[in-house]
Specification:
Largest sheet: 4 strands, mixed
Strand order of the largest sheet: 4-3-6-7
Number of helices: 22
Helix content: 40-55%
């Protein structure tokens, strides 16, 4: 059997359309499949891969809006030729006609299976991580700076609101007489957050380092060797208590410790690949700020996930409730899904100061970067509380959103139905319009293209739902490579398995054939091995090499596995002890590498010359190794 190692986009589209024809032959016959594939190939030749990554997703987004009842679909506006006397596209028209009427509105009895097909084809390459252009980079940076200007212009507004809140002190909740309708909401939000943090000590934390890079450029093995620490931090978190193991450690390191400085380091903006739309902007924190942020963030998350007011409404590690809420909302129409635009960048420092209890805000502000450096070298003062990259960004944003929505909720049922996971929010549909207006009145920005408040379509936390059916497509992200690569190997095995689960068997076989041609035989799930495995192994591949491990009394197979490189560096005893207390002594899940903070083994901690980098590196630095499993 001759297998081609190349796997271009046209082959994947052809295999996908073949699967659609197989499962929907009555609607999508051989002629339809051939014409649709020819249309794709023609437009790709004329427009390039942008047809797959931009034009097709543009039609998909317009289709989602029609499903949500927001607007009617007009295919011409999306760059597609329409059918005669209709606003629906010729492209995949067989399926569009089973969901929408000729004027682009939702049919009384739309076909959910057709929705699945349309979205799978159109969204297939939407998340493809292609190299981004300088123009896209400048657009992201300009948007970041514009947001800062917007927040600066609202600063006086929040100060005025704070003054009104002070004037309302001592007034009964329902007796507040203020022209600004936000006053009672802000007051109630304050009360809610005060109840959550009433017995919370923000200084009772276990600092630790995060998994990412830092603005001060320390490498993994030098993060525990302190040189400069901001005075703002040490005013709340004394040096000897939070940065050193003991007074003996402080005395031994006085010769290398330079100063507690008031001229603190800036955060630093970097751009990382996201998808075909462009890069994602991350602000790296200075090492001393990140150290305290991580400890305070973990303490806040643990409190919120266990507090009676929030444990069923605010989530940080489990997206399941929001996903189930999206499915339920699409089936019954009772719940709406809201999505915020630039959510992390729109939470201003003044808003956090307005709502959070003073004893908590004082510590949060102490470990917050005041400014950040752009890639151009320009330094701008931050008006937002914390950009994406700060460990406090996610919990602060979620609590702000939850407290405002809960404070303004008209009844107990509404309050109990609010679910928040970062910037993904679920509220009762009857409350949705008021909720969006409320959040925007406090400076947040609703992404109305992704917010679903009507119709039968909902999306939240990676779950797309229509009429109670999961219509989430498989979205390819990692670009295929014919050269062996750890990220390609693991990602494309995952894609293949997802296609198999959705019964796209031709796509599955195409990907598997290409993988086997490059990497050789791949194990199957039925072997129960702890390595990337396929749902079903192909018959044509060779058998895996095997042996009998007499010591373990089991059969082992020689397979490809993913390994992160370990960096061997000299680390002094004090630094190793500080690392032990930070990562093991104060953590209940120290060896869970999924949280990005654990270690590989006890040997890594006790060996004085070994510093494991596996928990701190991204998949881009992983490598393929042969192992017996």
């Amino acid at each position: 059997m001759v297998i081609n190692k190349s796997l271009d986009e046209s082959k994947i589209i052809a295999a996908l359309l073949h699967d659609v024809h197989t499962s929907h032959g009555v609607v999508f016959n051989s002629r339809s499949r051939r014409l649709t594939l020819n249309k794709v190939m023609l437009r790709v030749r004329k427009e390039g891969i942008g047809f797959l990554t931009k034009t097709m997703p543009r039609l998909a987004k317009a289709f989602d809006k029609a499903l949500a009842g927001d607007t009617k679909l007009n295919s011409v506006d999306c760059g597609f030729e329409s059918q005669p006397n209709s606003k629906l596209p010729r492209f995949l028209g067989e399926f569009f006609n089973r969901v929408l009427s000729e004027d682009g509105a939702l049919l009384p009895l739309p076909c959910a299976d057709s929705v699945i097909v349309i979205r799978q084809v159109l969204y297939l390459f939407y998340k493809y991580k292609l190299p981004y252009t300088d123009e896209q980079e400048q657009t992201i940076i300009s948007r970041f700076k514009q947001t800062e200007d917007d927040l600066c212009s609202r600063s006086q507004d929040f100060k005025n609101l704070a003054t009104l809140l002070e004037q309302a002190k001592g007034t009964r909740r329902h007796s507040i007489n203020a022209d600004d309708r936000r006053v009672p909401v802000a007051r109630e939000a304050r009360i809610l957050l005060s109840r959550i943090f009433s017995f919370f000590d923000p200084r009772n934390i276990a600092p630790r380092h995060g998994p990412g890079v830092v603005a001060t450029k320390q490498r993994l093995w030098s993060k525990y060797e302190w040189t400069n620490v901001s005075k703002r931090i040490t005013d709340q978190y004394p040096l000897d208590e939070y940065f050193f193991v003991s007074l003996g450690h402080v005395c031994d390191r006085l010769d290398t410790f330079k100063r507690i400085t008031e001229n603190e380091s800036h955060a630093k903006v970097i751009l990382v690949p996201k998808d075909s739309r462009g890069p994602r902007l991350i602000s790296c924190e200075p090492v001393d700020f990140q150290w305290v942020q991580q400890g305070l963030s973990r303490a806040m998350v643990q409190l919120v996930e266990n507090h009676e007011l929030t444990k069923f409404n605010v989530f940080f590690t489990d997206q399941g409730p929001n996903g189930r809420g999206a499915l339920l909302g699409s089936g019954t129409g009772r719940y709406a899904t809201l999505d915020l635009n630039e959510a992390s960048d729109r939470v201003s420092l003044d808003l956090v100061r307005l709502l959070f209890p003073p004893h908590v805000f004082t510590c949060m502000e102490a470990c917050r970067s005041l400014s950040t450096e752009l890639p151009s070298g320009e330094i701008i003062e931050l008006q937002k509380f914390a950009p994406m990259g700060s460990a406090l960004c996610f919990p602060t944003m979620a609590l702000i959103i939850w407290s405002l929505l809960t404070a303004a909720a008209p009844d107990a049922d509404t309050r109990e139905s609010i679910l928040v996971y970062g910037d993904d929010v679920i509220v009762p549909t009857a409350y949705a319009v008021n909720a969006m207006e409320l959040l925007e009145s406090f400076g947040l920005k609703i992404n109305r293209d992704k917010s679903c408040i009507s119709g039968l379509f909902r999306e939240s936390c990676g779950v797309d739902a229509f009429k109670g059916v999961n219509v989430t497509p498989v979205r390819l992200r990692t670009v295929w490579s014919s050269s062996p690569c750890a990220s390609v190997y693991s990602s494309w095995i995952s894609y293949a398995n997802s296609f198999y689960d959705k019964q796209y068997y031709n796509v599955y076989e195409l990907i598997v054939e290409s993988l086997v041609s490059i990497y050789g035989p791949i194990p199957g799930d039925d072997m129960s091995l702890t390595c990337p495995s396929l749902r079903v192994t192909p018959e044509f591949q060779q058998r895996l090499k095997s042996r009998t491990n007499k010591r373990l009394q089991k059969r082992e197979f020689r397979v490809w596995d993913i390994k992160s490189p370990s960096i061997s560096k000299e680390i002094d005893g004090w630094s190793m002890l500080l690392r032990y207390f930070a990562e093991v002594g104060n953590s209940s899940n120290s060896f869970n590498s999924n949280d990005g903070s654990g270690t590989d083994s006890l040997d890594d901690l006790y060996h004085p010359r070994v510093f494991s980098a596996s928990s701190y590196t991204s998949r881009r630095t992983s490598m393929l190794v042969r192992r017996w499993r």
